[in-house]
Amino acid sequence: MITLSVDPTSQSFAAGQALGTLLITAAVMTVIWFATRTWRRGPVPAGAAEPAQAFPAAQRRYNVVASVLLVVATAGLIRACSYEGKPPSASVEAAPVAQERVIDAAPRVGAYRLLTDEEAAPYEQQASGKTLQGQYWFYDGPGRGPMGAILQINAVEWDAGLAEEKRSDTMTQELRNFFAGAKASEVTAFEAGPWGGRLSCGFIAPNAGGRPIVCAWTDGGTSGSVVLGDETSLPGAAEVALRFRTASEKRT
Question: Is Transmembrane tagged as a keyword (predicted)?
């Protein structure tokens, strides 16, 4: 099944918080109005001369309650209109400014070996007609197939479009869009490792060799994914994806 969660950084969450603030404000104003009803009216006049004297006092009490209600309403409106939710992924869990990011495919990641030159040429030719963003590499894997993994990494310093996307979207939205485009199923979140951010894995459409798994991660400056053809479980694939990420992304 696809894992769903409340995203505190989304616009819908902020709108819900604003609506809740307005409802609470209305409830508080209603309670104040009914709780002060008797006090506003004051005592029942005992004689014919008392109504003329009681009216100014009742008017003053009414003005006091109206002023309190005005203050409560103003505070509620300010709170509702100023709530913007949590910041998106470009400002959440981003790498420290002092760190520099170096991205380069590792020659070997566990049982996976990087394909280069003539070995990688056929797969690079096949991928040339597809819309792959950033840089990508091909790996031989532990299985019988000729290719065990496709690693793809994109960074904001390479791609202005990615930088703009990270300024407007949250990490949750980024991964949701990625797995929707990949038509993945049973998407599950896992530990993202030392670089932070988010990491999730899911199954994609089966092919002749089995049922591949795609894992994707994102943080404030990078987005990456790895398609694994030789892994059979999501937790196992997440561990392999984490090794690919930490081996290929260096922070200095």
Answer: yes
Q: Do 192 and 122 belong together in one domain?
A: yes
Average pLDDT on 59-72 reads 82
**Domains contained in the chain, number:** 2
* Pair of tokens at residue 58: 């009742």
**Does one domain contain both 16 and 138?**
no
Q: Work out the angle between the directed axes of helices 50-82 and 11-35 (0-180°, nearest 10).
A: 170
Parent domain of 57: 11-82
**pLDDT classification of 15: cutoffs 50, 70, 90:** low
> Where does the pLDDT of residue 13 fall: very low under 50, low under 70, confident under 90, or very high at 90 and above?
low
Hunting for tokens 């009742």 — which residue is that?
58
Name the β-bridge partners of 223.
154, 218
Return all residues near 186 (Cβ < 8 A) that are at least 6 apart: 1, 2, 202, 203, 234
Contact 141, 114 (CB under 8 A): no
Strand partners, 250: 102
Residue 10 tokens read as 């989304």
pLDDT at 246: 92
Q: How far apart are CA 193 and CA 220, in angstroms?
A: 14
Task: Say what the pTM is.
Answer: 0.60
Give the separation between CA 233 and CA 187, rounded to whole angstroms.
12
114 in a domain, yes or no?
yes
C-alpha dist (Å) from residue 47 to 43, 50, 52, 66, 192: 12, 6, 10, 28, 79
Q: What is the DSSP letter of 131?
A: -
